Amino acid sequence: MLGRLGEVHLIRAEALNELNYPDNEALTLINGLRSRARDLAYTLTVKRKGKADTTVAAVGIAPVSFAGAATTLRVTNQAGFRKVIRDERWRELAFEGHQWYDLLRWDAQDGTKNAPKSVYLDDPTVSGTNAGKLFWPIPDAEIRVNPKLVQNPGY
Prior knowledge:
Elements: H1 5-20, H2 24-36, E1 43-46, E2 54-57, E3 64-65, E4 73-74, H3 78-92, H4 99-105, H5 140-145
Parallel strand pairs: 3-4
Antiparallel strand pairs: 1-2
Helix pairs in contact: 1-2, 1-3
């Protein structure tokens, strides 16, 4: 399995937050990731056929702090920093296939993270073939090798 340095920083920041809030190393890791996306001087010119050009200034992502300087996002408790780390994880690892596993690991598949409804497979309002399936099926070849294995429900 391949990983990225950004993912390693996020995993470490998440662990440090859970073990020792407030942790300055975790804060440094998150702000390091955010600094790559922060360029307040950046402007973009949008050109559309038959319309005037539009110039848009970039907003950037503000750094995080525990103290609350004027130009930072202030975090006052562990739950708030946990949300910052999770939001940063979603931005940093977008389209890399981590969302489903993060929801399961955080036990957030019940609708608290505002993720797409299709990931809430244990939600009673979800119908069809995916209802209640939080686990992948165990391959038949594995069950034949180890007869003590029992297939996950619904397969």
